[in-house]
Design a protein that fits this description.
The chain folds into three domains: 82 residues; 47 residues; 56 residues, Head domain of nucleotide exchange factor GrpE (Nucleotide Exchange Factor Grpe, Chain A, domain 2). It is built from four helices and six strands. The strands form two sheets. The chain has a three-stranded antiparallel beta sheet. A hairpin with a 2-residue loop joins strand 4 and strand 5. The longest helix is centred in the first third of the chain and has 50 residues. It is elongated. Belongs to the GrpE family.
């Protein structure tokens, strides 16, 4: 009994679908009798589709460009991160390098050549290791014009000579950079 009702309902549904298809065909035939109207509608539909396609192309191009910019930006950030990843370690090693500089000056006053050679060897090894990690010394010398972008003036003194006015008189502490970024500015004395 149940199966007969299901099959009967299914047959009714297929009959209804056939009737709907027939009505659509009749509507098409009626529209075909008025040919100008159909052509006008098709062009507007075609124009609409063309506009939709243009909008979607524009969206796609903008999204693609945005993604390319994102890739470039993240790639640059990643490269910068790799360049400066060991910045903290290198900055903490700079006082040790300064102590070696000062110690080397005092040890060279000693007459023990083996001691001087040993300290120089250790100093050069430390310095070459830091340089291999990207550390560079900021080149600033006495007599150079003072540039606040590359050096930090800790004091001004009367210039010992007229040609040293506004220039660096002495370098108190060396400066270092990692890649293009200065991680410690050189501390200098300038003449006024």
């Amino acid at each position: 009994m149940k199966f007969k009702n299901i099959f009967k309902n299914k047959a009714d549904m297929s009959t209804e679908n056939t009737e709907i298809d027939q009505e659509l065909d009749d509507a098409t035939i009626e529209n075909n009798a008025n040919g100008e109207q159909i052509i006008g509608e098709e062009l507007s539909v075609e124009e609409q589709l063309t506009q939709d396609l243009a909008k979607e192309k524009d969206k796609f191009l903008r999204l693609f460009a945005e993604f390319e910019n994102y890739k470039k930006r993240t790639s640059k950030e990643r490269i910068d991160l790799f360049k400066t990843a060991n910045q903290d370690v290198l900055q903490s090693m700079l006082p040790v390098l300064d102590d070696f500089d000062r110690g080397l000056i005092e040890i060279t006053k000693s007459e023990d050549e083996n001691l001087v050679k040993g300290v120089v060897l250790i100093y050069e090894k430390l310095k070459s290791t830091l340089v291999s990690k990207g550390l560079e010394q900021v080149e600033v010398r006495a007599g150079d014009p003072f540039n606040a972008d590359f050096a930090e003036a800790i004091t001004q003194i009367p210039a010992p000579s007229e040609d040293l006015k506004g220039k660096i008189v002495d370098v108190i502490e060396k400066g270092y950079k990692l890649g293009d970024k200065i991680i410690r500015f050189p501390k200098v004395v300038i003449g006024n």
